[in-house]
Amino acid sequence: MFAPFALVANLASEVFLSLASPAQWPLAPSTSYHRFFDVQAHRGGRGNTIENTLPSFAWGLIDGATTLELDNGITKDGHVVVWHDVEITPEKCVDTHPVYPGDPDFPYVGKYIANLTLAQLRTIDCGSKRQRNYPMQLTYPGTRISTLQEVFDFVSCADHRHEVLWNIESKIDAQHPNRTRGVMDFVEKQHAVFESSPYKGSITYQSFDWRTIIAMKQLDSSIAVSALIEDETAFMPDNSTSPWLAGLRLEDFPGPTVFEQIAQAAHFIGADILSPSAESTWTPVEDPDMAGYVPFTTREMVEEGHRLGLLVKPWTVNRMNIVDQLLDWKVDGIISDYPDVVRRHVKQRGLPTAPKLPKQRVLKCLEEHLAKQRI
Predict the structure, then answer these.
(1) With 80 as the cut, is the pLDDT of residue 26 above it?
(2) Whole-number pLDDT of residue 284
(3) In degrees, to the nearest 5, what angle opens at C-alpha 326 toward C-alphas 321 and 329?
(4) pTM value?
(5) What pLDDT is attached to residue 12?
(6) Helices and strands (DSSP H and E) totals, the chain
(7) What are phi and psi of 246, to 5 degrees?
(8) pLDDT of residue 32
């Protein structure tokens, strides 16, 4: 027995959990989309459409994504909403009006989602601003932040056979706990929405905060879980124990390289999927064809993950040379801001791809569901 066992056991006690053997944890039942290579539309396809909104998920479906990837926050009054950032940033959203005259929380832009109610979030326009790093984004002025239930309802309209897959992240801040709700708030409230959804068997639950991976697996062993990791969550500047890895230290695993240790740590907490950043935060250049490129996902990591029975699905992959490198290493999926481009390339490589849903039907459902948000 080596050190991580005691650390995870302590964590489990803290959140009133205990670890079962990973072999006893069944995966979610398969749907037909599992037979396709997993091209994931990151935030719905951030390169093409304003992120994490009904329009972005609509275009993800039209573009033939296998999986819709998205993020969840929890509001002050306990609603599960779909948004990436822990706060409402002025780069993405603009205020319109207060919920009631004299609301002391107004303006809402610049505040944490955990400190705002759903009614307050409903007033914010998060569809008008095109992001500078994504100059081809479609904007949808007036688009509101949706609840997770509303996203499920919209996609059910367009995908009436309920075949598309989901990768849903908890945006909990392990380093700054006062900025978001806590572990069990996220796990229990998200799971309640999963449980009532026709998509429950198609959901992967992902998080950088590995405490939530342990907690979700204990709450419901049928949910597939994905361990997110990057340089900034794997390594602390002062070499202290990362708050993101559930008390684990990578050096306590046998390795022999840190890349293999990462796969071993993800397997240890019972993850079904390892989802590492494709490139290192510290790479001085952006492309494998350029001298000095530093990846975070490596061949050793992929091979060790596969040896341990993990699927490996890197993010956020927006360069074709990185796509080629990862496909050569036999990754199981690719998360991209440009799912349409990655899908086309994956298909060119001879891998099976999910069908594109009928554009007319998807856009009709989008119009109907956006209208409900304007009421």
Answers:
(1) no
(2) 98
(3) 130
(4) 0.93
(5) 43
(6) 12, 9
(7) 60, 35
(8) 82
| H or E element in which residue 59 lies | helix 54-62
Tokens of 339: 């799912």
137: left (phi over 0), alpha (psi -120 to 50) or beta: beta
Please compute the mean of the pLDDT values over residues 298-319 and round it to a whole number. Answer: 98
CA 114, CA 122: separation in Å to the nearest integer?
Answer: 14
| Strands (E) located in 230-375 | 273-276, 311-312, 333-336
Give 69's contacts (C-beta < 8 A, 6+ positions apart): 40, 41, 42, 43, 44, 166, 167, 168, 169, 315, 335
Name residue, tokens 């306590």: 252
> What six digits make up the tokens of 296?
């975070």
∠ Cα 363 344 201 (to 5°): 60
**Rounded Cα gap, residues 218 and 201, in angstroms:** 16
User: What does the CA dihedral 190, 51, 355, 312 come to, rounded to 10 degrees?
Assistant: -60
- The tokens for 63 are 């573009």
Q: Where are the beta strands (DSSP E) in 75-125?
A: 80-82
